Amino acid sequence: MVLNETCISLLLMVGTMMLVGGCRKLTRHHMHSRRPHPRTFLLELFATFQICACTNELRLLANVQPKPHVALALTYIFTVLHGLTLTGSTCNPCGTLQQILDSGISVKQGGLKIGAQFAGAVLARIYIHHIWSMGIMEVHSEALAEGCSNPIQTTETQAFCIELLFSTVFQLTILQFEAVKPRLRVHLIALLITMLVYGGGNLTGAIFNPALAFSLHASCFHDKFWDYSLVYWMAPSLGTVLVAIVWGEILPLIF
């Protein structure tokens, strides 16, 4: 990808973030606080939309030279930007499941958030594919015609274990960072995500987010639903359950 195309991709992601920022601001100002469910749904939908749309575009920059330094740097930068602009939103069904298991939110509220996250993921895919169909860049046309990109570059068992491990590490770290100042916490989480992407991105994409995985690889889910559901939905969810057991039941007995 040439420099001009890289700049266009970056502008597209920044423009998407500005669009979502405006939508979230309007939602906060005009949705009445006495009707919290529609407000919560829209805020979570817009937040997940932003992450999924930007990650769909960011994935196209994976081969920009020097490789993988540019891709990892952009992963860190945009993760920080997401963290700073999407405060209060989870954007990950596993994170919401963690809150339900910790009794932080009700099952009804959690289900509403998860529904919003998958809705945002689907809308992001439609949005980004519409932009790609304009043929602004050659890489967009290539991505549109690609179909399933086969992100699993190892055995299904190993892929399952990788997503399980990364989800467990991620959720445990999130809980550990709860006492850290918000602005510092954003950078620590971004660093962790970047490290996980570096460690397993070439094998599974290191997604550990069921909604994001569906947005990135919907064609693969269509072709091999059970295989991809096991790796990208069940493994991260199981990791979240394990974290809830370790954090809520085992660690209190030890300490």
Task: Supply database-style keywords.
mainly alpha; 255 residues
Give a concise summary.
Helix 7 runs parallel beside helix 11 and helix 9 packs antiparallel against helix 11. The protein is mainly α.
Notes on the protein architecture:
There is one protein chain. The chain has 255 residues and is mainly α. The chain has helices spanning 3-30, 36-58, 69-85, 93-101, 107-132, 138-146, 156-176, 182-200, 210-216, 218-223, 225-254. α4 runs antiparallel to α5.
Task: Please render the helix and strand layout as text.
Layout: H1 3-30, H2 36-58, H3 69-85, H4 93-101, H5 107-132, H6 138-146, H7 156-176, H8 182-200, H9 210-216, H10 218-223, H11 225-254
**Helical residue percent?**
over 70%
What is the helix/strand order? HHHHHHHHHHH
Q: Could you tell me the mean pLDDT?
A: 91
Q: How much of the polypeptide forms β-strand, as a percent range?
A: under 5%
Give the quaternary arrangement of the chains: single chain
Structural class: mainly alpha
* Contiguous uncertain segments of 5+ residues: none
CA-based shape: globular
| Termini separation | 52 Å
Number of helices: 11
Task: Kindly state the number of beta strands.
Answer: 0
Largest sheet data: none
Radius of gyration: 18 Å
